[in-house]
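dumping the sequnces here before i forget
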Amino acid sequence: MFDKKNYNQKYYQEHKEKHDKTSREWTKNHPDYQKDYYEKNRVREIKQSCNWQKKNLEKVQEKHQEWYHKKRMLAFDKLGGKCICCGESDWTCLQIDHINGGGSQHHKQRQSYGIIIDVLNDPDAKSKYQLLCANCNWKKRFRLKEHNDHSKMWEFRKP
Ligand SMILES: [Zn+2]
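..and the predicted 3d for all of it:
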């Protein structure tokens, strides 16, 4: 019986050089082929991954939560781990405060997770961000709004 696989292998061995040369030339003449192939497969893989995520939503959310929590803790540690105003260290009520304002804008652009990543990636984070507990954060907001007086800010600055 004719063994096609064997024949192909034999043929390839005998014409190896010519074959490789042609294949190299073909790749050279079709520079976009590999890119296209990658793009097509990337789309397929993303789709597959999306489907998997849809089916395993709880698992994904759990993982995401875990990851978020870890990053959040790292960012808190970097900023001293406690409220700079009253010393509260219970992470459940700690918030990242923008020392020079602009927090809501930043939040709009980057969401909570993005801000945490920015804190972690910024070597100068300690001069831009500080930790406040929810109480002190509200007090800061209230005073700024009530007096519109930034000189009151000293109470909420790092010692
Ligand atoms: Zn506090």
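Residues 31-55 form the longest helix (25 residues).
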